[in-house]
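Q: I'm teaching a short session on how sequence maps to structure, and I want students to see two examples side by side rather than one. Could you give me a first protein with its sequence written out and its structure tokens following it? Keep the formatting plain so it prints cleanly on a handout.
A: Of course. Example one:
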Amino acid sequence: MFSAGLDQYLVLSAVLFCIGLFGVLTQRNVIKVIMCLEIMLNAVNIALIAFSQYITPVTLTGQIFAIFVMVVAAAEVAVGIAIIFTVYRNRESVDIENFNILKW
């Protein structure tokens, strides 16, 4: 049976993080940007769990940190969607260029 090593998980994590970073830097739709941020956070979760299994396979430290990251990501999405809905009601668009209403 084939068992993936730490380097393969880290390569997967790096590829997912780069895809998410590319999306954050190039997309103009705020919903797509939030989705790319979620991809980046999931890449970090993969790296956390991979390092945890490699360094201390008995303890669940990486899994606990990954659950914490998922909770923070859920809160970030809830607040982000609320802001997007508010801006959409005022501007009729979810384009990042129209988000200057949040500036002072």
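Q: Perfect. Now a second example for contrast.
A: Example two:
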Amino acid sequence: MNTNILIVGVGGQGTLLASVLLGNLALDNGYDVKLSEVHGMSQRGGSVVTHVKISDGKVGSPLIEKGEADIILAFEKLEAYRWLPYLKKGGSLFVNTQQILPMPVILGQAENPEGLEEALAARAGEIKAFDASQVAAECGSSRAVNVVLLGAASRKLPFSNDAWMKVIQGNVKEKFVEMNKFAFIKGQLA
């Protein structure tokens, strides 16, 4: 297995925890993993992206080049569009339909791009777009969007539900473990 996963969002959405869960899961199951995190003003709601490369061989560079991502997990619709060139033609895209407007749009200095859904569908072989924020809120915390999206994408990866539950148990604060397990399962069903 050689799988390249791009996790994209804005600061504070939990992209980094998602990459830690995914990386530890792969390591626990005998795969070589490389992670690379890029923060763009993440504390102010700027773009955050994590490259996750998983292989049953040896992973070289931790960075995913344009057109090489097998999967993109997008915590926000505009970030999915922004990073779309990195998805390989026919790759899988899992998108939270929440939209966080960038500051130039809020200030009236720019317009929000039109036709986001069409552009995403034209590139992806498979697209699962849903309100992961609402699903997370129904599970007990809107901050569980990361685990909801991991649940949705889990069927594209060779890990058992038991392995996912174990990595959540081992990497999430104890008081949030059960809620995150529930969020993961709800993401699988979304």
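Q: What should students look for in example two?
A: Point them to this: The chain has a mean pLDDT of 88. Also worth mentioning: Residues 81 and 115 are 10 Å apart (CA to CA).
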